[in-house]
Structure formats: structure tokens, C-alpha cells
UniProtKB/TrEMBL annotation:
Lineage: Bacteria, Pseudomonadati, Pseudomonadota, Gammaproteobacteria, Alteromonadales
Keyword Ion transport tagged: no
Keyword Hydrolase: yes
Organism: Catenovulum agarivorans DS-2
InterPro entries found in the cross-reference section: Histidine_triad_CS (IPR019808), Histidine_triad_HIT (IPR001310), HIT-like (IPR011146), HIT-like_sf (IPR036265)
Keyword terms: Hydrolase
HIT domain span: 6-115
PROSITE patterns cross-referenced by the UniProt entry: HIT_1, HIT_2
GO molecular function: hydrolase activity
Motif Histidine triad motif in this chain: 99-103
Residues of the active site: H101
Name of the molecule in the record: HIT family hydrolase
């Protein structure tokens, strides 16, 4: 992916973002339109346009995004209660920026209405 995105500008510190985590592989920053008390985007610093563009060589990078999510959930205090992590792919999947990213949402129940109670297994 050679096309510059808003995320590459955030990685390069060309535009501001409320960064909550950064290391050599990933960057996490608060979503500008939060859908939960805590809503951040976790992105790899390596530009990968969509899930369809992930290769075998990217498996550690993509796995690292989930490690960052777990770390942030613990730091934010909702790891035990639970949280949601979503990655969209292409237009029909709701992807608007073509640089893969995890949406991490926590701090409230993310149950699917009207099924907000836990479903008990009958197995």
C-alpha cells in the first residue's frame, strides 16, 4: 500500500491524535466519534490496506494488535468485565480508512439488544 491515509499521517505525527499506546509495531489512539466510554483504534505502523491484504509475514504484526488490546483493557480496568474488538473490511464491511485497524470498545455492556443477559449453554 503506497497511498497515504489519515492513519499514516497520525503515525508520522503530521496530524494530532489522542494517543493511548505506542511501540515499534503499533499505535493506539482514541476514536474521534466514540461509541463507548473507551473507544480507541489500534493500528499497525506497517501500512496494510485491508484484511484481504494480510500475508503470512504479517501474522505477528496482526497478533500484536490483539496483545495491545488486552493490555489496554487491563490498564483501563474493564478486562474482566469484557470489551469488544472489531476489524472492518472493505466497503460492505464498513471500512472507511484503508489501513487495517481494530476498533476497541469498552467501559459499558456491549451486549446485543435485546439479548443483554448471558446465554447459558445447554451442552
Amino acid at each position: 500500500m503506497s497511498q497515504e491515509t489519515i492513519f499514516s499521517k497520525i503515525i508520522n505525527k503530521e496530524i494530532p491524535a489522542d494517543i493511548v499506546y505506542e511501540d515499534d509495531i503499533a499505535l493506539a489512539f482514541k476514536d474521534i466519534n466514540p461509541q463507548a466510554p473507551f473507544h480507541c483504534l489500534i493500528i499497525p505502523k506497517k501500512p496494510i490496506a485491508t484484511i484481504n491484504d494480510i500475508t503470512e509475514d504479517d501474522r505477528e504484526t496482526v497478533g500484536h494488535l490483539y496483545v495491545v488490546a488486552a493490555k489496554l483493557a487491563k490498564e483501563q480496568g474493564f478486562a474482566q468485565d469484557g470489551y469488544r474488538v472489531v476489524m472492518n473490511c472493505n466497503d460492505h464491511g464498513g471500512q472507511t480508512v484503508y489501513h487495517i485497524h481494530l476498533h476497541m470498545l469498552g467501559g459499558k455492556s456491549m451486549g446485543w439488544p435485546p439479548y443483554t443477559n448471558k446465554i447459558k449453554s445447554t451442552a
